[in-house]
Amino acid sequence: MTMSTVYATKRILAWILWGAALVVTPSAQAHESDKEMHAFRTHVQPKIDGALDDECWATAIPSTGFILIEPHEGVAATNQTFIRILYDADYLYIGLDMIDEEPSNIEGRMVQRDGRFAPLDLVGLVLDTYHDHQNAYGFYINAYGIQNDFRVQDDGAGGWGGIDSNWDGVWQAETHLHDRGWSAELAIPFKTLRFPESEQHTWGLNVQRIARTYTENSNWSFISRDVRYLLKVSKAGHLHGIGRIKQGLHLETLPYATGRYEKRRDQPTEGWAGDLGLDLKYGIASNLTLDATINPDFAHIEADENQINLTRFELFLKEKRPFFIEGQKLFTPMDLFYSRRISDPDVGSKVTGKIGKNSIGLIAARNRQADGDKPHFGVLRLKRDLGVNSSIGALAVGKDGSLGQQAVGSDLVLSLDENAKLFLSSAMSFGTDVGEQNRMHTGRLTRNSDRLPFEVWGSWIDAGFNVDQIGFIPRDANVGEREFGVDGSYSFRPHFLGIKKIYLGQELIAEQRTSEEGWEWQWSNVDVYVNRWDDSSAWFTHENWQLRWQQNTYNGDSFEDRAQRRGRWH
């Protein structure tokens, strides 16, 4: 390690300690939900068929009291939901009974698993198994039994766009329609979840119900319109009573072998060819998971969607390979690591998990390349929870070989109150194609609000900063960038023509590149979004802009409109 790297690392650690000293408000925040319920141990496994008619369900005390978000915030839901929870040594059983005053209205979408089936009849829940008010597992099921699962991080700060939708847990769910509404049964194996070792557990729990009748959207533990999302883990209630459980042996293996015999008329010799490999997942402990791969085969992975690229930058490709999906969101802050840079690994290992308030992630892999160079990649991620809803972390990424590159960075998330968050990050890069000015700094302040949400952000990237071999920050080589932006909107509910909400927005983005003398900007001066109760919507925007390229200035404006019916854009 060079002296400059040591110096940079010391600067990063000093920045982390300075940020931690600022966290006073988040640690004083209190968890406000007063919702509580108990899980009851059962010695008889219920039949998972959606009907809550097994005798064991009679031993579980139901909990209800769902409060509306829509259409009238803060009042009791007309269509109430009853929650029952049982468990045994291996499974958590959740029974949900959705009462509906007009059962003939119950409707759901027939889509593939993890498809979008809102806003028709559905029920969903989050389980905060660490009870840290920041991270959770999410499970949704609609009236036709279609499943959707995901993981939530950072108290849902990124909204639905920030969830880890790549996570696919092993769980069973079925639904049943009856003359009072519909019901659902879920069986979630404990080995699907991560949780700390303890004799007795208290987990965070919240349940959301969307009912087509009266277009009701309600939650068991109340969430206001300002918060909006079930993903707000810090608003979850408390689930007590789970004890004497073990994750069990969590071992998954996926071996493969292929063989081929070939004989050609123009060749006198006969040939055999074959290949074999192995993917392995092992639960080292209830809160730590090891993933390993040897000569992986990605032939069964869904191909990337065709995209037309009219820009001078490369496209971002979504990660779909199982080895890289586990704990993916943990490694992505600051975009210093982009797993698709490891294009064809022949061997790799990964450890992810959480110990107390500390999250840890470690990746080591070797990439196979046609030119004979086999670079090694290494990633280390550490993150510590601060207070109820804040965190601080550090990330180090490295690649050796002829195109070696390294980067270190730190990030700080401060929860100023339940709706406002401040995101700060700082990073340095080293190695191939990296100049002396090698720093990147970013900041973002967001505030959720039903009526007046806003966001302010800025970034500063030095001309010599470069992570093209390990991360994904597309920009022109040896060109520094400064960007500042503000985005806000005002919304209101007119209650006519079936309109649910109208948003009026403004956005201004200004950018200056060191290769240009002036600034370029984009101003969305007309931004109107209309959302109806039937999930149809329309969007209109007009934008003025000034672009700069090779010391020339280009001015213009553009107009765009889109409409969607029941979730599909046109």
Short description:
The protein has 570 residues and is mainly beta. The chain has helices at 3-22, 25-28, 322-325, and strands at residues 36-38, 40-41, 67-70, 81-87, 91-99, 122-128, 136-142, 147-152, 172-178, 181-189, 200-211, 216-219, 237-243, 251-263, 270-285, 288-294, 345-355, 358-367, 376-386, 390-399, 405-415, 420-431, 439-447, 454-461, 481-492, 499-513, 520-532, 537-549, 552-565, 568-569. It is globular, with a radius of gyration of 26 Å.
Structural description of this entry:
By secondary structure, the chain is mostly beta strands. Among the domains are: 1-30 and 248-285 and 287-300 and 314-411, no CATH class; 31-243, Immunoglobulin-like. It is built from 3 helices and 30 strands. It has a 17-stranded antiparallel beta sheet. Strands 1, 3, 6, 7, 8, 11, 12 and 13 form an 8-stranded mixed beta sheet that branches. Strands 2-4-5-10-9 form a 5-stranded mixed beta sheet, with no helix packed on it.
